[in-house]
Amino acid sequence: MDVYAAKMSRICVIFDLDGTLVDSEGLCNQAFLDLLPQLSDTVESLTQRYRGKKLSRICADLEDRLCRNLPDAFEQHYRQRVAELFSRELKPMPGVLEMLEVTNFPKCIASSGPPLKIRQALQVSGLASYFGDNFFSSYEVGSWKPEPGLFQYAANAMGFMPGQCVVVEDSEVGIEAAAAAGMKAFRYVRKGEASPCRTGDEMSFDDMLQLPQLLAHFAER
User: Fold this and answer.
1) Which domain holds residue 8?
2) pLDDT digits (tens, 9 = 90+) for 165-202
3) Are residues 64 and 167 in the same domain?
4) With DSSP H G I counted as helix, E B as strand and the rest as coil, what are the percentages for the chain, rounded to 5?
5) 52 and 18, same domain (yes or no)
6) Residue 211 contacts by C-beta under 8 Å, 6 or more apart in sequence?
7) pTM, full prediction
8) How would you class 167 by CB atoms within 10 Å of its CB: exposed for 0-12, middle for 13-18, buried for 19 or more?
9) 96 and 70 fall within a common domain
10) Which tens digits make up the pLDDT trace of 67-95?
11) How many domains does the chain have?
């Protein structure tokens, strides 16, 4: 993206990926159940427990709950299983394609996932053309939500100040990271899910088709 053009625009939209743009969280947690059949959880309960969290912390929690160490190659096998599920089943979240068609602000993705996973998710879901190479990974930046570093890095790379950025997130750690970075947060709550308690100045919405108008209102401030 041309940095000068970015600076001439009013805002930049920084999207989370998993559970916000793509319906991936159920697949990611299904991979845990596939590899660890001794778990008695449902996909839904694992999704609620681990939403937005760093894989190393999830694995540590799984070890505590199972009272044993995971195999040394567990992360490799987990990544492979997630890639298999993505290739067959990954879809964009409802309304995302329509929303992106009419969202003309500069935009990027800031995800806790590794770059290979991000790229595959965008390609399989049909979203790659909307972002190009404008995606940033915690694995490359060295900062994981709820730390603000990933969002701050994305804003700087896109040519914006934090106060000009809107973060679109579905996880508590993402909302915390946006606040720590000095950015406005819009929390996506999927229809049918309970609305979480507000922890700051974030605005909640449950329909991606509402987002363009919310962004326009923010840009007019």
Assistant:
1) 3-23+91-219
2) 999 999 999 999 999 999 999 999 987 665 555 555 78
3) no
4) 50, 15, 35
5) no
6) 99, 103, 168, 186, 205
7) 0.90
8) buried
9) no
10) 999 999 999 999 999 999 999 999 999 99
11) 2
